[in-house]
Design goal:
Layout: E1 8-11, H1 15-27, E2 33-36, E3 49-53, H2 54-63, H3 66-69, E4 74-76, E5 78-83, E6 93-98, E7 100-102, E8 105-106, E9 108-112, H4 113-124, E10 129-131, E11 136-141, E12 146-150, E13 155-158, E14 160-163, H5 170-174, E15 179-195, E16 202-208, E17 211-218, E18 222-230, H6 231-238, H7 242-253, E19 260-262, E20 268-277, E21 281-282, E22 285-287, E23 293-294, H8 302-322, H9 330-358, H10 363-378, H11 380-390
Parallel strand pairs: 1-2, 1-14, 2-10, 5-16, 14-22
Antiparallel strand pairs: 3-9, 4-9, 5-6, 7-8, 11-12, 12-13, 15-18, 15-19, 15-20, 16-17, 17-18, 20-23, 21-22
Helix pairs in contact: 1-4, 1-8, 8-9
Length: 406
Amino acid sequence: MTKPSHDLIIVGGGPAGLTLALALVKAVPGIAIAVLDRRAFSAPKDYRASAIAAGVRRVFEEVGIWEQVAPTAEPVRQMKITDSGTGDIARPLFLRFDGEVAPGEPFAHLVPNTSVAAALLDALAGRVEFLAPVEVTGYSATAALGRISLADGRLLSAPLVVASDGANSALRTMAGIGTFGHAYGQAGIVTTIAHELAHEGTAYEHFRPSGPFASLPLPGRRSSLVWTETLETAAAVKAMQPAEIARRIEAVMGSSLGAVRLEEEGVQTFPLRLQLARSFVAPRLALIGDAAHVVHPIAGQGLNLGLKDVAALAEVMVEAMRLGLDHGSADQLARYQRWRRLDTALMAMVTDGMNRLFSNDIAVLRALRDVGLGMVDRLGPVKDFLIGHAAGIERGGPRLLRGLPI
C-alpha cells in the first residue's frame, strides 16, 4: 500500500480548518497535518466580528488561544430585541436576554475575526505544514487514502481529507457532493463603529422589514454592525461616504448609542443565502464550516456551527487514532455526520424561519410575532433553554464544547 504523505490534509485556512489542526496537534503528538489554501496565510482584512458562544469559547480555551484572543473580546451581558415597521419612530422592546450560562460565564463574547485568525496562525507556526498559495486541481479516493492533486504537479495523500474551503468549496464539488438551499436577495453590511454612549455589554437587534440590524459590543465604546438590506440598498450604502453611512446608522439605531462614526474606511458587504451540503462526508472526505453549511446571520451562529463541526470531528478522529483504527474510514465519517447533521439542519430551519417571519412589513405577521416575543420574554425557563442552546452547551455534546480535553 502506498504510504500517505500526511495523516490529515485540510483544504482551507479559515477559522474552522485552523482550529481543527490545532486541536489535533495538541491531542495527538507527532500527527502530520498539511493545511492548504489558495491565498497566503495571514490575518485577512475583515471588518466582521463573531459572536463566540460559551461552548465555542471553551474550545478556544482547550486549544490554547483564548488567552491571546481575550483582550480583544467583549462579553455579551444582555441582548435587547425590538421590532419596527417602515416609518416607525418608536421601537418597543419585546424581548430581552440577560444572564450567564454559569456563574461568571457570559453566554457569548464578541471577537474580531482578525484576532481569531492571528491567534490560530501563531499557535500553529512550526506545528503543521502550511502550503499556500496553492491551487487544488483534483480529488480522488481509494479504499485507504484520499488524494489531492495540485496545479504545480504535486500529489498529496492522507487517510482523511477535510474540506474547509468555504461556501463555494471546490473540494466539495470535486467529490461530487451537491447542495440545496436558496438565495435571500439580501446582503449583510458589516463595519465597526465608535459611539458616544457606553454599550454596557448590550447587543441590540432591531428587526426591520428589510432584515435585522444588529449592533454587537466590542471593547470600549465600539460595536460591530451586521446590517441586513436588499442587494440594491447594500450596494448603494457601500458606495456612500463614511459620514453618510454613519448618519444612516444613527437613523436606524435611534438614541441607543448616541452619535456614531465609522472606524473603518467604509463597509464590507456579503450576499446572504441558505446552503446545506447534501452530505457532510464522501469517501475519505469530511466537510466542515461553510463548506458544509451556510445559514442566515440573524442568530449569529455561522462560525459557531463550524466550530461545533470541529469539536465533533476532532473527537471522532482522536478516539479512532488512539484505538489504532482508521480515522478516515466510512464508519468514522458516518459517526461524524450523525453527530452534526441534525443540529445543523435544525439551525438552518430556525434561521430561515426567523428571517421569513421578521423580514417583512405585514401588519398581521408583525402583531403575531410581537405577541410571541412578549410571551417568550415572560417565560424564564424558555429563555434559559434558548440561551443554553445558543451558547452551544449541550449535555452529551463533544468534549471540547464542554471544556474537556479530548
